Amino acid sequence: MDLKKIEKGMELIIEGLGKNIDRKKLKETPKRVSRMYSEIFSGIEIDPKKILGKIFKEEYNELVLIKDISFFSMCEHHFLPFFGKAHVAYLPDGNNVIGISKIARLVDVLSKRPQLQERITNQIVDIIMNVLTPQGAMAVIEAEHMCMIMRGIQKPGTKIVTSAMRGIFLRDLRTRAEALSLISSSIKM
User: Fold this and answer.
1) Options 62, 77, 115, 142, the catalytic residue
2) Is residue 87 among the annotated active site residues?
3) Is the pLDDT assigned to residue 79 strictly greater than 60?
4) Is the predicted pLDDT of residue 36 greater than 70, yes or no?
5) Cα 132 from chain centroid (whole Å)
């Protein structure tokens, strides 16, 4: 990531807005923005396939669901944030499971890059299928997009929901229904 180029770009934006880049309160803004971008786009420099890490041998072939994973991302169309919750499920092959925190970390890494919600949704399940080789994987993402809230149509509270399913979640309606039911339920323990 070239932080100096990001700084220069921010200077041009400020000047393009007709503001004086040398004004005391704006002088450090380009540096702050470049540091912020290095943080919010840190997923660019990480191979998401390596996030899942060690596969554990465990005799388990029932649903695993990690739900309500909070995330923030930046829409690549407008470079405005979108944010929400990801729900990720997989059905192990009877031998292989992964640490549950790895799923949340995968969502985090994929969201920390210029993105589209549809792409993140597909990437999550494709990576799980490739690395873990489960019977199936599923992701449902619900998010609010600032490009719909603060510009354009200006509709606060509107949520976009995307889903991606592979393997058994496409073939077996009962397995898909079980996962969707658990996602939408508010289980209290």
Assistant:
1) 77
2) no
3) yes
4) yes
5) 19
Nearest C-alpha neighbor of 50 from the set 3, 94, 110? 110
Residue type, 156: P
* Structural domains present in the chain: 3-40 (1.10.286.10), 52-184 (3.30.1130.10)
pTM of the model: 0.93
Q: Give me the helix-helix angle, 117-132 and 100-111, nearest 10°.
A: 140
Give the active site residue among 7, 87, 123, 145.
145
- Give the Cα separation of 107 and 152 in Å (integer): 28
* Catalytic residue selected from 7, 75, 87, 115: 75
Do β-strands 136-145 and 160-167 pair in parallel, antiparallel, or remain unpaired? antiparallel
Helices then strands (H, E): number in the chain?
Answer: 7, 7
**Annotated catalytic, 75?**
yes
Please tell me which residue in 7, 87, 117, 135 is annotated as part of the active site: 117
Please tell me the distance from the alpha carbon of residue 140 to that of residue 104, in angstroms, as a whole number: 13
A 10 A CB-CB count for 89 gives 27
Copy the structure tokens of residue 181.
């039911």
Which residues lie across from 14 on neighbouring strands? none
Active site residue 115: no
**How do residues 145-161 score in pLDDT, each as one tens digit?**
999 999 989 999 999 99
Confidence of residue 189 (pLDDT cuts 50, 70, 90): low
